[in-house]
Amino acid sequence: MIRYKVSDQIQKGRNISMKVLHVTRSDQDSFRIGINRVKPGVFAACVAILCVLGTAQGVYGDEEQGPELEARINGLTNRVRAYELRVKAINELMIEYPEKVFPIFISIIRDPLEQEAMRSLAAQKISELNPIQATAVFRQILSSRSEDTFSRRIAMTQLWFLDPGSMKPMIHDAMANRNEDAAIRQYALGLYGNSEEIGKIANLRRYVRTKSETLSMRNNSLFILEKLGDADFVRTEARTILDDVSEPEELRKNCVLIAERLADYDSIPIMLKIAVNKNAASRLRRFVLVALGHMGDGAVSAALQKGMNEEWDTTMRRDMEEARDAINSRGN
After folding, report:
1. Which residues fall within 8 angstroms of residue 211, CB to CB, at 6 or more apart?
2. Which residue stretches of 210-297 are H helix?
3. Number of Cβ atoms within 10 Å of the Cβ of 169
4. Taking the model in full, what pTM does it have?
């Protein structure tokens, strides 16, 4: 049976809780959570952490608690046990022994072998048990590159609700830092896109236009801007990117999808130019031909017919024919 060793659980909880008391200069620079920047209540939170750790001494398996409690804890930490039964154990223990389960929840959150649903639930539960202490724990997890990506994403999500004021600089730091884990940057970008921050449209546009930025940051910024209703910018920028042969192929393909979603018929001449260009990437040409089959008119059909007559690649000629036939079937 796979289960946590109880003594290891409480020790892991102690370790991360104690680390909260030792915020490094690096943490201060990256996430602005130095002791001198924190509200006065944090001192009380630190005291609370020590109190919890003190009461947790010898909890699991000590004679004061007895084997019954240890069996119930094992019912929570046993990974092969049914999820619903583990949730039931969590709810019962939170009522009877809230101070005992806090470090167990921290260990579950940090365990990459644990179920993601259970890790997320544990994060919610420590936020309910002690929001101040949970905030300190989540800050430490988020600031540590040694933590796995999922635990840092959990921390970011919880902090978004627990302490939105301090999360603003953390989100900006995560997005701007190109040495940060790519998944964390994208998660931060998603949270930022859902924020009410003034000026986010301009910042997202800047990510789209920065050629040195990663493909995922540019693609996802375009997507968020589209969802935010910045359609004129998205159409114009998508055309510019699509027409630029120096842009990554995947980004240009995404711009074809944008043109189709937003019914940007002004992009058709650019797509047609790509479709008949024998030197263009084959995958991009096929991608464009599908869109032209959906959006093109009689003039596009005639241009594709001309292109077919000049195309030496039989596969590409067949794709052109399919696009032409799709246009003609609509009676355009």
Report:
1. 246, 247
2. 215-227, 231-242, 249-261, 268-275, 282-295
3. 14
4. 0.72
